[in-house]
UniProtKB/TrEMBL annotation:
Superkingdom of this protein's organism: Bacteria
Residues that span the membrane, as ranges: none
GO biological process, one term: intein-mediated protein splicing
UniProt name for this protein: Hint domain-containing protein
Ranges for domain Hint: 120-228
InterPro entries: Hedgehog/Intein_dom, Hint_dom_N, Hint_dom_sf, Intein_N
Organism this protein belongs to: Octadecabacter ascidiaceicola
Length: 306
């Protein structure tokens, strides 16, 4: 059965880009995984924006000069479509922004886009979150409840969400065994959920005391691994800003709309009703609470310790 996702795209080919200084704006397109095998590629009639994928190139990069921010480099996948369009979508957890084109790089090898790279940051049902009234199952936390945050004390929940998703292969949740990273109980999170990691490696290699690392990049051969199942109930908590919460006793991120909000039209509409200031912009309040590491950076950080 087909599964459709929504994501951000630049509408040019990094291998044949516009001239430097050209204005660039992102758009939202649907991606359809026709046979629901967990990837989008040139096989099985997968499509983007209604047109079949002819080829796909993971690993291309696009650098954009974003007003007020400077140059931002995105890593992602470029799709060649049957209708002649060429489109690029990020797979590095960043949010595309409007700006002017600076440069690009491209790869020659084809490959699929793993839909796991489109995943939301969220907790599995049953996860205990530290709140004003103590450790509370996430499914029992409601809008207005006070949740303890690492940076800003008790903060009220502004929005909570729930969704049930297939949880096989690359979309399987990441299981942290009790004590794997100091957690008091087993912890299940989505693959792209960010965990706060600290230590000398963070300071040495990245100049930061603390950084955020996607759970999928922490998988090891022992205490942290994928835990596939047919379905899983995921819950989200959102605040006035990106926060660091305590889940099963360890610091981890709250819902960050910049990474996922464009992937679900119903979710987009609901969140925009509550946060109209987010329309058309990320804004300073939606910067991540800490620097987010990419896959190769996470490998440098973790070394053989996880």
């Amino acid at each position: 059965m087909p599964t459709t996702y929504t994501d951000q795209f630049y509408t040019f080919d990094p291998a044949n880009p516009p001239s430097g200084g050209t204005s660039v704006s992102f758009v939202s397109y649907n991606l359809t995984d026709q046979n629901d095998d967990g990837d989008v590629d040139a096989f099985d009639n997968d499509s983007v924006n209604g047109s079949d994928v002819s080829s796909s190139y993971p690993g291309d990069t696009v650098t954009i000069n974003v007003p007020g921010t400077g140059n931002v480099t995105y890593t992602g996948t470029t799709f060649y479509l049957a209708n002649g369009d060429r489109v690029f979508t990020p797979t590095d957890g960043q949010v595309l922004a409007n700006g002017t084109f600076v440069s690009s790089t491209w790869v020659s090898g084809q490959g699929p886009l793993d839909v796991g790279d489109l995943g939301p940051p969220c907790f599995a049902a049953g996860t205990l979150i530290e709140t004003e009234r103590g450790m509370t199952p996430i499914q029992d936390i409601e809008v207005g409840d006070l949740v303890r945050t690492l940076d800003n004390g008790l903060q009220p929940v502004k929005w909570s969400g729930k969704r049930t998703v297939a949880a096989l292969d690359k979309r399987a949740p990441i299981r942290f065994a009790k004590g794997a990273i100091g957690n008091t109980r087993e912890l299940l999170v989505s693959p792209q959920h960010k965990i706060l990691v600290s230590g000398w490696r963070a300071e040495l290699f990245f100049g930061e005391d603390e950084v955020l690392v996607a759970a999928t990049h922490l998988v090891n051969a022992d205490t942290i691994h994928r835990a596939p199942r047919r379905h899983i109930n995921y819950h989200h908590l959102m605040f006035d800003r990106h926060e660091i919460l305590l889940a099963e006793g360890i610091p981890t991120e709250s819902f960050y709309p910049g990474e996922y909000i464009l992937q679900d039209s119903d979710l987009h509409d609901e969140v925009m009703d509550l946060f109209p200031e987010m329309i058309g912009q990320a804004g300073p309040d939606w910067e991540t609470a800490r620097t987010v590491l990419r896959s190769k950076e996470a490998q440098v950080l973790c070394g053989d310790n996880l």
